[in-house]
């Protein structure tokens, strides 16, 4: 295969992508990567005002970008967002189901309400966002849905009970939706980052001893940088992955291998 053909596989020119949770963190990096590959963007947040600076950045870079309000814990908000997204460009080619939250507490301290907050945001919300968007993808017989999971989709960590449950659920949900919608040309995959510094967990990285502990367990010996996700994201969003569906792609520096030394240093 020629270099030109290989490059074209990842070209998103003319494609329209939704990125949920794009007011900060990895959501913005995902949007930048898609825009850099040629896609037009619909970026969402619970508050439109939080998107204004980022929208200007995308537009300045040459991308058409439309901000939309979305609260993934509210069904009506999801339906309104999907309709507005379709009306804005007349189609939806890619969904990056990124909006999420976390509550770090020992399992004995988690409240009923905290459990619901995390599961409603990280699992129920992404299902109904995917459902609403798939209703527009299925008639066009094509689409790429990328659910954002985590290394906790395949591994459990103390103090992250609801979060691990939600991310494990996303992995299973991805497989179910892939089977449901594959006949319509819609692929559904899960992109699962490992340990990346984000707004949700940045306080952890202020502890040098914890960072040393973490890095020791990552085979590549460093936490992830946002650009480490670009290739995997574009693969799942583009024609390069047209025969890939129902999969969880871990981008974690290898920590999911187990990363426990069998010998002394």
From TrEMBL:
Where exactly are the transmembrane stretches of this chain?
Answer: none
GO MF, one annotated term: gluconate 5-dehydrogenase activity
Please give the name of this protein. Gluconate 5-dehydrogenase
Query: What family is it from?
Result: Belongs to the short-chain dehydrogenases/reductases (SDR) family.
Q: Enumerate the UniProt keywords alphabetically.
A: Oxidoreductase
| Entry EC number(s) | 1.1.1.69
Annotated organism of origin: Bythopirellula goksoeyrii
